[in-house]
Design goal:
It is built from 4 helices and 5 strands. By secondary structure, it is an alpha/beta fold.
């Protein structure tokens, strides 16, 4: 019988993925920002560590491509800027799709998660470090990708979020 589960949240990005691991029982949280190859190496290390210590592992990958949205650019956005935004979004989505394919091929348990609701105090409703620290106790600095990954892992673990998000 497993001691528990280590939840790994991944916020895919074309350059560096936000990666976070949460152990539910102790509420241990670590975050990193890793390249694609380093993310795969991290998953391998975590899988081996989980097995050696009697834990299960569950990977949660943010899957923005599952959203069926119709987004609009401001009138001031040039065609070149619109193309750059579309390219960047597509590259991030492809990174997530490839991570899911790698997890499947390597036999790692994973699931795809639509992006969580943006209801925080940061720019565009993103979570801030202070908000993340308020319910996780995380120390040190975190970037946006790490915070998004931490939020994925924390919610996948079913741990409480006890702060008041901003009203929509």
């Amino acid at each position: 019988m497993a001691k528990g589960t280590i939840y790994i949240g991944i916020d895919p990005d074309a350059k560096k993925n936000g990666v976070a691991a949460v152990e539910k029982g102790t509420r241990f949280l670590e975050t990193e920002c890793l390249t694609f190859g380093a993310t795969l190496a991290y998953l391998k290390r975590m899988d081996e560590a989980a097995k050696n210590s009697g834990y299960n592992m569950e990977i949660v990958i943010e899957a923005g491509w599952l959203n069926h949205s119709n987004w609009h650019l401001p009138a001031s956005c040039s065609p070149q800027r619109a193309a750059a935004i579309g390219r960047s979004v597509g590259m991030n989505h492809q990174t997530g799709i490839l991570l899911a394919e790698c997890c499947a091929a390597l036999g790692y348990p994973y699931r795809l998660q639509k992006p969580l609701r943006k209801c925080w105090q940061g720019k565009d409703g993103k979570i801030t470090h202070a908000e993340l620290k308020a319910f996780t106790g995380i120390e040190g600095r975190t970037n946006q990708e790490e915070r998004d990954a931490a939020l994925l892992a924390w919610t996948a673990a079913g741990l409480p979020i006890r702060i008041q998000p901003k009203k929509q």
